[in-house]
Amino acid sequence: MKPTNSFTPRLKAGLIGAGGIATIAHLPTLKAHQDRVEVVGIADVDPDRVGQVADEWEIPGRYASAQELLDAESPDLLIICTPPSAHKDAAIQGLRAGAWVWCEKPPVLTLAEYDAVAAEEVEGGPYASYVYQHRFGSGAKTLKKQVAEATLGRPLVALCNTLWYRPHAYYDVPWRGRWATEGGGPAMGHGIHQIDLLLEVLGEWAEITAVAEKLDRDVETEDFSSAIVRFASGAIATVVTSVLSPREVSYLRFDFQDATVEVEHLYGYDNSSWTWTPAPHAAEDLATVDSWSPQENVPSSHRQQLSELLDAMEAKERPRASGEEGRRTLEFIAALYQSAETGQPVRRSEMRQDGTYYTGMHDESYIYGKQS
User: What does the alpha-carbon distance between residue 69 and residue 63 come to, in Å, rounded to a whole number?
Assistant: First the structure.
């Protein structure tokens, strides 16, 4: 945690949305950084929920909308914890009010919305960044550095599995499983974390060939998808995302010329979740193999991402998981849906800033679960 002194005022934060992700993840994270940031207000359309959460977490300001909170409190940081359909408007309101924005996943519903938010950013801040916390652990940091330095040889093959389970009742919440309110199915709302980590490690992707199906849940969107991805480096990855899998796991595997690197967890990892396995020819140099794993243990977490975001705010620099970095992950998912619905590979170089998969994630003439 970055040290402070009596001459460094705490930054002011406001929260939009008083649901589970605010109380489970963001408010504990903010409390962990209370020497650097204070929560001055919270807003939600449900006044009873606002009062309950504000009382529990001793938040003085209680509001019915993002704009009310912004007008009354002028926060330095606006944290958006609403359902996805409300992300764009709240982010734009925050940026226009001079607040930096930290928004839960998925960032917004479409690439067009993402670009509309980005257009409100100003050089030196405020910027909008997004919750992609899995790229912030020491395992990901170490592996990304190894890829950049070719420590393990060229990347060749990767697996990216988000095999989770969400019961039928999960979709009783009206905004879930609907294109207009969630923007997509598990690729958009669940697998996005592992997909972002895959891209953080392997970099630019070049082509996607995908399938997506509605196999069991009563939703408009898919409940399963699978994609084969070619990267600019030449590496090829398989990406599988499901909410139908009773034994839940988040698993990424990277096969390099000289080693296999794996991380297996569910909703967050630390160093114990990672393994580095040398190829037979590399195992002879044990000193090198021992140095492959991280020397510090920083779990993937909202806490670590917020720490780096606060550093960026103080330095007036663009934070990680924003700008083109944040767009790349959303662009990947748009291409996945485009390939699945058109039955054709999608090259990144051919993606457009107009048309069906720019202004949406879905062709309305394509109905999931009706294909034969």
Answer: 6
Examine the pLDDT at 361 and tell me if it is beyond 80. yes
For residues 264-278, average pLDDT: 96
**Domains (range + CATH), the chain:** 11-133 (3.40.50.720), 134-303+329-359 (3.30.360.10)
Q: Give 268's contacts (C-beta < 8 A, 6+ positions apart).
A: 133, 134, 137, 299, 300, 301
Cβ 179 vs Cβ 221: under 8 Å? yes
Chain Cα centroid distance, residue 362: 20
Q: Which tens digits make up the pLDDT trace of 181-197? A: 999 999 999 999 999 99
Residues of the chain with pLDDT > 70, as a percent, come to: 96
Write down the pTM of the prediction: 0.95
Q: Please check the confidence at residue 2 and state whether its pLDDT lies above 60.
A: no
CB 239 within 8 A of CB 195: yes
